[in-house]
Amino acid sequence: MRRANTVWDVAVVGAGPAGALAARQIARDGLRVLLVEQDRLPRDKACGCCLSARGIETLAACRLSRHLGKLVPRRYDALRLASGGAEALIPLPPGVTLNRTRLDGMLVDEAAAGGATVLDETRAELEPLQSPLDVGRTLRLVPRGGGTPFCIQARMVVLAAGIGNRVALRELDGAVVHRAARIGVSCVLGATDPVPWTDGAINMAVAREGYVGAARLEDGRWRVAAALEAHHLRRAGRVSGLVRQVLQSAGWSAPSGLESAAWRGTPALWRHPRRVAARRLFAVGDAAGYVEPFTGEGIACALDAGRVVAELAIQGVAHWSDALIDAWTDTITRSVQRGWRAATVAAYLVRQPVLATTTTALLARYPGLAAHAVAYVNRSREGGSL
After folding, report:
1. 142 burial type by CB count under 10 A (0-12 exposed, 13-18 middle, 19+ buried)
2. CATH architecture, range 2-45+99-178+271-348
3. For the whole model, what pTM was predicted?
4. How many Å apart are CA 117 and CA 71, to the nearest integer?
5. Residue in 257, 243, 235 with CA at minimum distance from that of residue 185
């Protein structure tokens, strides 16, 4: 097997928001960075499209506001929540919706502009450490289409390869999958399709079988994303049929385009690795854990993690210490998982149909009751850390 002569300071595996932003921040510090993505770039993702106020703040801290503005995202400032015929409109700090192909593409372009080398259509496999004294990690890179695999050396690895990645499962002692984890699905409906949703809001329908969210993209189309109970999905047989059922149970009509839409899915959503760091390895984004994205904070959490892990990766290149494992674990526990805790509470709520409907009706009458929860999820951080 061919081995490359280049020794990279940092190899970042996965070019989503967490990985691309981490690669950009590290490369701008003057380090040699390789950003590896198994899919062809740019690529879409089977998930939502909402970038919350918290995520916008992170991009601003990285001086990327101008680049985000060039994409002309669509603004939203409310959550329209429906359950059992009850409906509430909850004010939110202004966020934006944007197709992931364009958002992730912008971040990858900025990583390249900052000095990172981008290698797509290549699967990365992390070789086991041979000795605790090793000063780097070996990655086996496998090009798609039958190219010759080759190995590289990296002093640090940032793992941002998404949910259920095999590297994470082995290096981080496996994953814990919540017994009630739902399956994620998404599609895009045309700009002219008749829909029951409100522009400028995240529209969320909740029912016993799961929940369905919809938001309008910058090009006028509608992104539909759902988290569905696996046993209900097996019984329904078709994703579109179960999505239709959730919408109608919540009190909304279902767009006719659901049946002909191209649906994409994810593994079980609610999971986390047993560890988030190992020797010369940090996991970020979905690879560090994932809770059902009811609060719409997934991208914001990923951006947060990508920005902050860059600081520790730079330290690890200069001088590795096992104390950095504890530092990243503490960071994830203290701050990134703040968003997970909020999502966990929301996930429990939407699993109780009577409680969800009662809460929605109460919020319809007293929308200010949601203000503390909204502020908790979106509150600012100080000192440039998570």
Report:
1. middle
2. 3-Layer(bba) Sandwich (3.50)
3. 0.88
4. 23
5. 243
pLDDT reported for residue 106: 97
Instruction: List 118's β-bridge partners, or say none.
Output: 35
For range 35-57, the mean pLDDT? 87
Q: Which of 270, 276, 386 is nearest to 338 (CA)?
A: 386
Pairwise CA distance, residues 226 & 355, whole Å: 20
Give per-residue pLDDT as tens, 109-159.
999 999 999 999 999 988 887 766 678 899 999 999 888 999 999 999 999
Q: Are strands 33-36 and 117-119 parallel, antiparallel or unpaired?
A: parallel
Give the per-residue SS3 of 106-151.
HHHHHHHHCCCEEECCEEEEECCCCCCCCCCEEEEEEECCCCCCEE
Measured CA to CA, the distance from residue 297 to residue 299 in angstroms comes to 6
Count Cβ atoms within 10 A of the Cβ of residue 320 and give its class: 0-12 exposed, 13-18 middle, 19 or more buried: middle
The candidate with the shortest Cα–Cα distance to 187, out of 257, 244, 237, 261, is: 261
- Residue carrying the six token digits 């070019």: 15
Measured CA to CA, the distance from residue 138 to residue 153 in angstroms comes to 5
More confident residue, 380 or 87: 87
Residues 6+ apart with CB under 8 A from 263: 185, 186, 187, 239, 240
Helices (H) and strands (E) in the chain, counts: 12, 18
Note whether 8 and 27 are within 8 A (CB). no
Burial of 75 (0-12, 13-18, 19+ CB in 10 A): exposed
Q: Where are the domains of the chain?
A: 2-45+99-178+271-348
Residue 48, pLDDT > 80, answer: no
